[in-house]
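Sample pair:
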Amino acid sequence: MTRVVAIVLVRNEDIFIDRALRNVLPACDEMLIADNLSTDNTPAILEAIRRDFPDKVTVRRVTDPSESHAMVAPLTGTDTWIFGVDGDEIYDGERLKGFFDQLRGGLYRDRWMILGNVLNVAEMGDDHKVATGYLAPPCRSMTKLYNFAAIDEWGDRCPERLHGGNVKFRPGYDSMKRVFLHDEVSWADAAFRCLHLCFLRRSSQDKADPGVRKNIMDNQVRNWRKLFKQVRNWYQKKSSACWKNEVYRRGEPVTLPVGEFFDRA
């Protein structure tokens, strides 16, 4: 049977992490969580979720983001869709469940990767009823859904789960076999859609206006490739925050109702 396994990498995400994970848990067969040494209330929230779903959720405390990829590497070559979830990603859980059921029924079995619709949220009221942000398209979609039945190996020093490294494809598959759902359906009609809260405060330890946070793996320089990237970005005067502004603030801002992302239990 085709399974959907979520892999979660977090670090200090206690504002939205409970909603982010509980929205997607009913749609998934299993959830693997890597907590990269959070110091806010994130560990307590993750433990509460694990207690509520003891047969579905695994939580591991990791000291390096690369350990998150090791958690899913053994699933290569199996009939599994791997779903990458971050602490700043709120999915429409009700629609997601129906979409994943279609995947289990064989939809897109011949594809390697699926990209969904995204609203990159710049502002949202405290009541979580409406949000203002930038849609993908024209922004880049950061959703992560991979068909691990399409590959025999994904390794060679991945800095974090589902990033970098070398992918060895099975016959009939390659990196171009992607589905760009965000180009095919509108936000209103999308089943695989996400509120990306990359411009909002995500931890109780963040400043009131934290700006754009770096990716988890950008906070650790463990090899020459990362060091080279940092030096290159310094020369180009192109910080992680600037990069995110470039790819996640394209087009005109829109204001949309988002209450259904938060109202469901």
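The two ends are 27 Å apart (CA to CA).
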